[in-house]
Amino acid sequence: MPDALPLKMLHDRLLVVLDKDGSERRSSSGIVIPATAVMGKRLAWADVAAAGPSVRQVSRGDRILFDPEDKSEVDVGGTDYILLRERDVHAVAQPEHDDAGTGLYL
Fold first, then answer.
1. What pLDDT digit, counting tens, does each position of 34-78 carry?
2. Are residues 64 and 93 in contact, defined by beta-carbon separation less than 8 angstroms?
3. Which of 14, 24, 28, 64 counts the most CB atoms within 10 A of its CB?
4. 11: closest CA among 52, 58, 57, 60?
5. Using CA atoms, how far apart are residues 71 and 13, in angstroms rounded to an integer?
6. Hey, is 15 helix, strand or coil?
7. How far apart are CA 46 and CA 71, in angstroms?
8. Oxidoreductase as a keyword (predicted)?
């Protein structure tokens, strides 16, 4: 994700980068399921690159879950982005904390 984008987001709009790892998935037995396989409605993960001033619950750098059928694609500086409204976001992933430590009890 670039640090500075040559555009300013307006209202409740989000500019996100689609998760490239989400295109293929594996079944529980290890069989690769391609992105073109139709298995019903499936949500997608993306990372927020920019957010408009009216966005309240999502910020830049968050990982979000959304419906890929309700998207508008845009190319900015050679990078493909997806433009969404904040209300189209279904969930925001919680940050992962590595609090495992050494596993030793004192």
1. 666 555 677 888 999 999 999 999 988 899 999 888 778 888 888
2. yes
3. 14
4. 52
5. 12
6. strand
7. 12
8. no
Distance CA 46, CA 66 (A): 8
CATH of domain 13-22+41-92: 2.30.33.40
pTM score of the predicted model = 0.69
Nearest to 46 by CA among 63, 21, 58: 63
Which residues, listed in sequence order, are joined to residue 44 by a DSSP beta bridge? 66
Q: Where are the domains of the chain?
A: 13-22+41-92
Tokens of 98: 């590595």
Task: Enter the tokens of residue 41.
Answer: 């409605």
Bridge partners (DSSP) of residue 74 are 81
Contacts of 70 (CB under 8 A, 6+ apart): 84, 88
Least confident of 7-11, 54-58, 83-87, 96-100: 96-100
Bridge partner list, 104: none
- Determine the pLDDT at residue 44: 87
Overall size of the chain counted in residues: 106
